[in-house]
Protein: UPF0173 metal-dependent hydrolase GCM10011361_01080
Amino acid sequence: MEITFLGHATLSIKLSEHTILVDPFITGNPMVKDSISLKGLEPDFILLTHAHQDHVLDVEEIAKHGKPTIISNYEIAMHFQEKGCEVHPMNHGGSWTFPFGALKYVQAVHTSSFADGSYGGQPGGFVLSADGKNVYIAGDTALTMDMKLIPMQFKLDLAVLPVGDNFTMGIEDAVVASDFVECDKVLGYHYDTFGYIEIDHKAARETFEKAGKELHLLAIGETLAL
Structure:
């Protein structure tokens, strides 16, 4: 499994036989500029944690090429189905086995609405089980006690956690979240894209190191292999 950071909360996950794209927000990200082409992204599946524009902006354009299946909560799935996209709706606590492996849709504490203000269902995260690895993709969330449920079912190899603060949990809460999910290897995301969520990278890494944990803050386009 190879996870490539495409900026903000966008991830490309390359598996043995499939590619998954998470929360595509590329053309609107000033930090990406022209370094990533949507035409070069040909995912088999797209995971959407919630409906905010900085997580779904490029879905329709990417979906024009190759017809990926969009996996999200029921409301988001139906929204994109009406636009002619292939979808698979899920909801909290539900699991499903896909050609690439399995997903469990888990709780996130945040909000969810489309750019026009219409309802985007309840936000969530995913536990991805594929290629012999378990990865928790938290989505935009506060620190929540529900995270303690995850290690009751899964031994995680990686936790992908938001660390930008203000709209989500910050560094200190992310350390606690890694305790809750019992995973000391963390990929941080949802940071630096705009002023509200800028972080001090050195201080963030030191905070994790003091807790005996490993924080990866990847450059855009950089890949972490599991």
In short: The chain is about 20% helix and 30% strand. The chain has a mean pLDDT of 97. The chain has one domain: 2-225.
